Amino acid sequence: MRAEIVIVLGLSLGQSGVYAVMNLLRRLLATTPLREQTADLNVSQATNATLDLIYQLLGVVFGLMPVALALFLLMPTFRESLRALGIAGTRPLRDLAAGAGLAALIGLPGLGLYAVGRMLGLSADVVASALNTHWWTVPILILAALKNAILEEVVVVGYLVTRLQQLKWSPLAIIAVSSLLRGSYHLYQGPAMAIGNVVMGVIFSLWFLKTRRVGPLIAAHTLLDVFAFVGYALIGTDWLNF
Description:
The protein is mainly α. Helices cover 72% and strands 2% of the residues. The chain has helices at residues 2-10, 13-29, 49-63, 65-74, 78-85, 92-120, 137-166, 171-184, 191-211, 215-235; strands spanning 38-40, 125-127.
């Protein structure tokens, strides 16, 4: 089981965490101060609009493969894995309502932390949408938000917490590992954003330990990313830059 965890994380967000650490080191060693650097999300992959759309869709599909792997390994069938993680879709409205509450709890403090991080030089200028403007830009950003939410919450919370519980880890150790992993792969944005994601990880891990439901976490994460991605694409965030 330990080897399985290493393989799943090594193929997904654990790998992202290692590269994010290297990215942060590169940023800190650069002559340009961190606050004057940018971290681009959702970038265009081709100048041709159709090719770019295909690349974006492929990114969503292949980005979800680690989720399929985790669900395949967790229980004998996908249906059992979905039920075990509370994402079988049996109560979507309740999950969405709970997710909206979690998003509100995390979103506003997160914006404040980003603003403080920018002022203190502990965060790069996060460009949440660097896509060229096409008719499909907003739908793709929504799909990207959903993909990120499913990947992170299933792997970092549902799968990892379940496996660590099966290994008889203490709740405190489980929360610490899950939360620090979440923070690690956001380090490319700067230390401030990583700290904010660690706090988010603590809240989400506690929620899953108490409720055994990842559905509300996926809803909350999707709402947060949709607000960030689509909001940036439509209005930008110059008002948050200092």
